[in-house]
TrEMBL record:
Biological process annotations from GO: fatty acid beta-oxidation; long-chain fatty acid import into peroxisome; peroxisome organization; very long-chain fatty acid catabolic process
All copies of domain ABC transporter, residue ranges: 160-395
A GO-annotated cellular component: peroxisomal membrane
Stated family: Belongs to the ABC transporter superfamily. ABCD family. Peroxisomal fatty acyl CoA transporter (TC 3.A.1.203) subfamily.
InterPro entries according to UniProt: ABC1_TM_dom, ABC_transporter-like_ATP-bd, ABC_transporter-like_CS, ABC_transporter_sub-D, P-loop_NTPase
UniProt keyword Transmembrane present: yes
Name of this chain's protein: ABC transporter domain-containing protein
Keyword Transmembrane helix assigned: yes
Key words, A-Z: Membrane, Transmembrane, Transmembrane helix, Transport
GO molecular function annotations of the record: ABC-type transporter activity; ATP binding; ATP hydrolysis activity; long-chain fatty acid transmembrane transporter activity
Localization per Swiss-Prot or TrEMBL: Plastid, Chloroplast
């Protein structure tokens, strides 16, 4: 359900700053569950009253009928009993049957209670085990850094600046040591390195998904740094909601943003249902039951299923163009986009004067960037920074200090 989707897409949601809309979605889902629970509780209340009534009165009538049968038919010599003996027979037999009925009822109720208690005890046990086995995340490294010359510090500024920043995995593995460079708005940086060297790690620290261990990061407000990850999160809602996420329609109206802006952003991202190509197909369309669907801004669909991977990436770029941040991190987010469209999207980012960090293995992307930040991926946390127009291996000491 909603919780499983949230767990699956938690990192993408955190990168997009979608905590509030997802919290609202959880609250709406909880409200529906609570409403259903209230309804079923009322029904259970009525059924419990009926069950108790039947157990108390209907069973009593049946019991009395069965007990009276030997008396009425004169079975087992009861026709020779005196009235006192018959009354005693009725009383003792009825008490035994009532005790048996109550015991059976309590047995069924005890089974239900044991089941509920078992479920609650299991949840508490899992919680306690999780708390006991929780591993501290870089607490020793952070404690040591606070006592050293480069304590972990975040500062506010217009540019992105890294001063003696060291990045660790949560398990304590050093990825980058003493990172020093500054990026202004409009500068384009290509981040390269081998698989698993931690190319995305620096941006997890910026988004505060991972703790900053040491050094100083100067950065603008979090909303001025936008992240496009490898896995594109597709929120629930209308096509409009997909583009303005994590904003809501109320926020859009408050900021006096228009649908024309959204359609323009979709056109820039080559994902508009209104722009037709030479073969008559729209940038955003799909076939369902033999019919061509070109969604409107107010349409709500199962976007996760209907959109192709390339369309999801284009929607993510339309969302980027809508929010117009100062900096953007592009983490392998153009794999499903054709090269010609990819070039136009990069050109649009440049025209918007965005500071760009591109994480990619594509060598051809160098022509769209000014600098290359290369992670060596060694145990010493080495890194280098080059100007993309110059040959690999030439160190740009005027801009950065590598190790």
């Amino acid at each position: 359900g909603v919780h499983s989707e949230l767990i699956t897409n938690c990192e993408q949601i955190a990168f997009l700053g979608g905590e509030n809309p997802e919290k609202n979605r959880l609250n709406r889902s909880f409200a529906r569950v609570l409403k259903h629970l209230s309804k079923t509780t009322a029904m259970n209340f009525n059924s419990e009253i009926l069950r108790q009534y039947l157990n108390k009165y209907f069973v009593t009538v049946i019991g009395l009928f069965l007990v009276s049968r030997p008396v009425r038919l004169g079975l087992n010599g009861i026709d020779k009993y005196t009235p006192d003996m018959i009354a005693q027979y009725f009383s003792s037999t009825w008490k035994n049957m009532e005790a048996m009925s109550t015991s059976i009822q309590d047995l069924f109720e005890l089974t239900n209670r044991i089941g509920r208690l078992s479920g609650l005890a299991s949840r508490v046990d899992h919680l306690m085990r999780g708390l006991e086995t929780r591993n501290p995340v870089l607490e020793n490294e952070i404690r040591n850094a606070k006592q050293g010359p480069f304590p972990p510090t975040f500062k506010h500024g217009q540019d992105l600046k890294f001063e003696n920043v060291s990045v660790f995995r949560p398990d304590g593995t050093l990825l980058v040591k003493d990172l020093n460079f500054s990026v202004q708005r409009g500068t384009r940086v290509l981040v390269t390195g081998g698989n698993g060297c931690g190319k995305s790690s620096l941006f997890r620290v910026i988004r505060k998904l991972w703790p900053l261990v040491s050094g100083t990061i100067t950065m603008p407000a979090e909303k001025e740094i936008y992240f496009l990850t490898q896995v594109n999160f597709v929120p629930v809602g209308t096509l409009r909601d997909l583009v303005i996420y994590p904003d809501s329609s109320q926020t859009m109206e408050k900021e006096r943003r228009t649908d024309e802006e959204i359609l323009e952003c979709l056109r820039w991202a080559h994902c508009s249902p209104e722009v037709l190509s030479e073969d008559g197909r729209a940038d955003l369309e799909f076939v369902q039951e033999g019919k061509v669907i070109r969604p409107k801004l107010d349409d709500t669909r199962d976007w996760q299923k209907d959109l192709s991977p390339g369309q999801k990436q284009k929607i993510a770029f339309a969302r980027l163009f809508y929010h117009r941040p100062s900096f953007v991190v592009l983490d392998e987010c153009t794999n499903g986009i054709s090269p010609d469209v990819e070039q136009e999207i990069y050109d649009r980012c440049t025209q918007m004067n965005l500071g760009i960090f591109s994480i990619s293995h594509k060598i051809e992307l160098k022509e769209f960037h000014d600098w290359e930040l290369h992670y060596k991926g060694d145990s010493a946390g080495g890194w280098e920074m080059f100007k993309c127009s110059e040959t690999r291996g030439k160190y740009m000491g005027s801009l950065s200090r590598g190790h």
